[in-house]
Amino acid sequence: MVEQGHPRRILLVDCDAFFVQVARLEDPEGAGQAKLLLVGGSPSGRGVVTSASYAARAFGVRSAMPTAQALRLCPGARVVRVPRKACAHKSREIRLELQRLSPVVQAASIDEFYLDVTGTERLFRESLEDTADRIRRTVLEATEISVSLGGGTRRMIAKLASDFAKPAGVHIVPPGKEADFMKQLDLADIPGVGPALVRSLQDRGLVRIEDALGVDQEWLERWFGAHRGAWLYRRMRGLDSSRVDPREPRKSISSERTFAQDLDTDEALERSLLQLSTSVGRTLRKAGLRARTITVKVKDPDFKTRSRARTTPQSLETDGTLFTVARELLRELRAVRPTPVRLLGVGLTNFTTGIDPEQLGMFDDDDEALETERGRTLSKAVDSLRERFGDRSIVPGPMIRD
DNA sequence: TCTGGGGTCCTAGGACCC
DNA sequence: TCTGGGGTCCTAGGACCC
């Protein structure tokens, strides 16, 4: 807990309306020309806005807002789909560029990157402001993406500072000024304080950080539990000991789909489930992983979300076994509450890499084994065919039986 | 107004083991 | 008859982030 040595120099690089920028680069004649641009939506009409251009935001449009509502606020706005592949590709480009500019880079999301540039002041003989601005200009030139940078002695400070930098700017909180910086903010501004906690704080008359600073830690712990209370107490004061850590093993892989119309038949649901299982399976194998836990999730028409998970002794990787387990879980969910389904999802967790040592030989020639070497080899062969000839070359379906 | 899709982390209870 | 305690794994749900 005790801070040691020199204060750290942390930067957060945050892309300005990332999805909007990528959509414009992808389609300069269309999206590129529309001042009022909403990225997101969906042909089914059930979509939400993922990102809106700054001009559209001036009308009150926010991300996660239903597209229909956004269009009422901002009539005439152009709506385009999220260019997912292009976004992932551009994100990688930006990360590679940042890795040339900073010793420690951590991708926090598709459009946010933490840098720890502690020590570079001696190397470059420049202030943190100047470092941040140099990085901003270099990234723009190399990737065509405009970013903003927040900086300070801690991750949370850098993150909050970046809000003051947008768009296309830099904002640094000097060492020692963290508490003053926090004091001007609302509790809702603290990353990790969401709608539920805000409501609960509001019920106790607390909205501004400045007002909440007088509350004893003991009370916060009594209200929100020891862990969360202590966490909030520190965060309000700008204290945050988390490091910028470039190692980030993936912990879950999932795919889900909201249907244009709620699905009601087992046949249609299982067809969709097969697609989802195949999709997460390919991602899993591409990452060189196997998974032990499979989760199936449904959202009912009343928005109630239910899930069912199963952990198998053997770690799995083939589409066939993933689908077989997922189908059992879906049938259990349907049995509990047989209602039409708005959303269906498949998730994988509990990863092992390659061969699990403790299971070596355990399932060879074993009736218990869900997956065989033959099946795994086949699954990978299918992957490489798809890689070479496209997704349509192999149609799943006939290879899966009861 | 009518609510996406990809994630991470936390909690609470039960099973099971020593 | 009155029933420990701690650790780990698993499941289900929920808060939160971009």
What amount of the residues lies in strands? 15-25%
Low-confidence stretches: 398-402
Number of helical segments with 4 or more residues? 15
Gross geometry: globular
Structural class: alpha+beta
Strand order of the largest sheet: 5-6-1-7-8
Task: Give the beta-strand count.
Answer: 12
Descriptive overview:
With 402 residues, the chain is an alpha+beta fold. Helices cover 41% and strands 21% of the residues. The protein has helices at 18-26, 54-57, 67-73, 84-101, 120-124, 128-143, 155-165, 178-183, 195-203, 209-212, 217-224, 226-236, 266-286, 319-336, 373-389, and strands at residues 10-15, 37-40, 49-52, 78-80, 104-109, 112-116, 147-152, 170-172, 252-263, 289-299, 305-316, 341-353. The strands form three sheets. A five-stranded mixed β-sheet has the order 5-6-1-7-8. A four-stranded antiparallel β-sheet has the order 9-12-10-11. Helix 11 (217-224) crosses helix 12 and helix 13 (266-286) crosses helix 14 (319-336). The longest helix is centred in the C-terminal third of the chain and has 21 residues, at 266-286. Residues 398-402 have low confidence and may be disordered. The protein binds a DNA duplex (18 and 18 nucleotides) through strand 3, helix 3, helix 9, strand 9 and strand 11.
Summarize the structure.
The protein is an alpha+beta fold. It has helices at residues 18-26, 54-57, 67-73, 84-101, 120-124, 128-143, 155-165, 178-183, 195-203, 209-212, 217-224, 226-236, 266-286, 319-336, 373-389; strands spanning 10-15, 37-40, 49-52, 78-80, 104-109, 112-116, 147-152, 170-172, 252-263, 289-299, 305-316, 341-353.
